[in-house]
UniProtKB/TrEMBL annotation:
Residue stretches spanning the membrane: 249-270
Compartment list: Membrane
Taxonomic source organism: Silurus meridionalis
Swiss-Prot/TrEMBL keywords: Disulfide bond, Glycoprotein, Immunoglobulin domain, Membrane, Signal, Transmembrane, Transmembrane helix
GO molecular function list: signaling receptor binding
GO terms for biological process, alphabetical: regulation of cytokine production; regulation of leukocyte cell-cell adhesion; regulation of T cell activation; T cell receptor signaling pathway
Entry's family note: Belongs to the immunoglobulin superfamily. BTN/MOG family.
Any single Gene Ontology cellular-component annotation: external side of plasma membrane
PROSITE patterns (alphabetical): B302_SPRY, IG_LIKE
Signal sequence extent: 1-20
Protein name listed in UniProt: Butyrophilin subfamily 1 member A1-like
Domain Ig-like stretches: 38-140, 157-232
Length: 501
């Protein structure tokens, strides 16, 4: 009976009932309470005049749910398990640190882990022997999305830089900023929104940039002055494949380069008498860092995997400890594809100066080329965390990796996704302390893939890092360098190339 009457009053007299002198008034914050997605909020309500609420009934409920309060305080007990979605998320709380709580009429509600379904009105109803009253508070929230994710795609004589970010509420805006006035941003996509399963928004856009103009591009996603995320990328000097202008020419030159290499191996015996500049000139024109595979091979170190330091129960090694892949136990725990970070294994070698080069094979005979893998370096004191964010340069990890979904990417900040047309079967890694750089090469095409800067604490030693990923048939295998290609067995120069560390 009483309930029906209350509902009636709410509808016709609004939230505030003014009653006789000893009556209770529920006084709530009139401002919309703004919360952050996933965090906690306080919905402040209190009784005026100050009244001890310990012996009253307090009912917090969503519109039209008087009978199913998310929090009910009755007979001096709090009941919070009446509504499934508020179990473990609601409690009575203090509206400010000075509040003396229920005793002085503070009936505020605390909500934890707020989500989109919490947006809207909350009713607070308080009743005693002589009177009852109710009022409402309005809750809204914002969700700060992820750092934008940039990816590059090379086109004829331009690059297509795209930016995406998810986890926003409400819809954010997206702005491209260029440091170069001449950077022509005329061709660009106005933001495209999509809704995630949880109701939060993703935003996406791209711009076409001339690859001849160097530029620093920023993708800025904004909700409000305080809620924005941006990432920047240097285009030009730092382009992953710098002179990727015309693919056809590049391909032809790469072919020439390979032919030149083959020639060099065939005439290796005569190499002393021949000038090396010929070979270099062919390559210099289209390789960004003026490298030659032959120079790299001189820096080769012999890598042995340290199988004592990894999750042996999930990894299988060959006898020589230079090949590794996931095993059946791993398949039981880690489903699908990709590279669970727990499957990382490092080399026994430690580096702190000079240059070191090694190669890792991703393709073995009779099995498809690996799609899930990680190759790079880590500081020797690294630890494996459950948090993906921890595998960052800041935490001492630098790597190139691949998974079937995202293709090739490097863990720069921001993460850079590499052009889809690179599908290496063998990766060369050059760790160069003189330049503080880590470079990756596509050995099959003798092509540079990407160079990343390494900032480490001085003297911190680095170890080679590998992860064979999950679900690939092919092992990840350290190439025994220069013994495979065009190298007559027992050639003395073969051991030159295999410096042990
Ligand atoms: C609500 O509380 C505020 C501050 O405590 C007070 O100024 C105001 O008069 C109250 N309103 C009512 C209707 O009691
Ligand atoms: C609420 O918390 C208890 C104790 O932490 C837990 O056992 C229970 O599963 C939780 N219930 C829900 C619906 O989350
Ligand atoms: C730029 O790349 C995105 C995919 O990353 C694609 O959807 C878009 O169509 C491209 N723009 C142009 C002009 O090719
Ligand atoms: C991008 O964010 C950084 C802080 O993370 C800030 O210093 C910088 O001004 C921002 N750039 C733009 C264009 O908003």
């Amino acid at each position: 009976m009483k309930e029906t009457f209350v509902c009636f009053c709410l509808v016709f007299f609004g939230a505030r009932l003014v009653m006789a002198s000893d009556t209770i008034t529920v006084n709530c914050s009139k401002n919309i309470i703004m919360g952050k997605y996933g965090s906690s909020v306080v919905l402040p309500c209190w009784l005026t005049p100050v009244t001890d609420a310990e012996n009253l009934e307090i009912r917090w409920y969503r519109p039209d749910q008087f009978k199913n309060p998310l929090l009910l305080y009755q007979n001096r007990k709090v009941i919070t398990d009446l509504v499934e979605m508020y179990i473990n998320r609601s409690s009575l709380t203090l509206r400010n640190p000075q509040s003396a709580g229920l005793k002085q009429g503070d009936v505020s509600l605390r909500l934890d882990n707020i989500g989109l379904s919490d947006i809207g009105i909350f009713h607070c109803y308080v009743s005693g022997d002589k009177s009852y009253n109710s009022n409402t508070v309005k809750l809204s929230l914002t969700a700060l999305g992820s750092f934008p994710h940039l990816s590059l795609e090379h086109r004829h004589d331009s690059v297509n830089l795209s930016c995406s970010s998810c986890g926003w509420f409400p819809k954010p805006s997206l702005l491209w900023k260029s440091t170069n006035e001449k950077g022509d941003l005329s061709e660009r996509q106005s933001p495209i929104y999509s809704e995630q399963e949880n109701g939060l928004f993703c935003i996406y856009s791209w711009v076409i940039l001339s690859s001849s103009v160097s530029n620093s591009m920023t993708c800025l996603v904004t909700l409000s002055e305080d809620e924005k995320r941006n990432v920047s990328l240097e285009i030009g000097a730092g382009l992953p494949v710098e002179n990727s202008g015309v693919w056809k020419i590049l391909f032809t030159l790469a072919l020439l380069c390979v032919l030149a290499l083959v020639g060099i191996f065939l005439f290796r015996f005569y190499r002393k008498y021949k000038s090396k500049s010929e070979y270099k000139e062919v390559c210099r024109d289209e390789q960004p860092n003026d490298f030659s595979m032959e120079e790299l091979w001189k820096e080769t170190v012999n890598i042995i995997l340290d199988k004592e330091s990894c999750k042996k129960e999930f990894l299988s090694f060959n006898k020589q400890d230079d090949a590794v892949r996931d095993n059946d136990e791993a398949a039981k725990i880690y489903k699908g594809f990709g590279f669970p970070y727990e499957l990382c294994v490092h080399g026994r070698n430690k580096f702190s100066s000079g240059r070191a080069y090694w190669e890792v094979g991703l393709k073995q005979t009779n099995v498809p080329c690996k799609k899930s893998w990680l190759i790079g370096v880590a500081k020797a004191s690294y630890t494996i965390s459950n948090n993906k964010e921890d595998f960052s340069p800041g935490k001492g990890f630098w790597f190139l990796c691949s998974d079937p979904e995202n293709g090739l990417h490097v863990n720069t900040e921001p993460e850079i996704v590499l052009p889809k047309n690179i599908t290496p079967e063998s990766i060369g890694v050059l760790l160069d302390f003189s330049k503080s750089e880590l470079s990756f090469y596509n050995v099959t095409d003798s092509a540079h893939i990407f160079t990343m800067k390494i900032k480490r604490n001085s003297q911190e030693e680095l170890v080679p890092l590998f992860n064979p990923g999950i679900g690939d048939k092919a092992p990840l295998k350290i190439n025994p360098l220069r013994k495979i290609q065009a190298e007559p067995e027992g050639n003395a120069s073969g051991s030159d190339a295999n410096q042990h560390v």
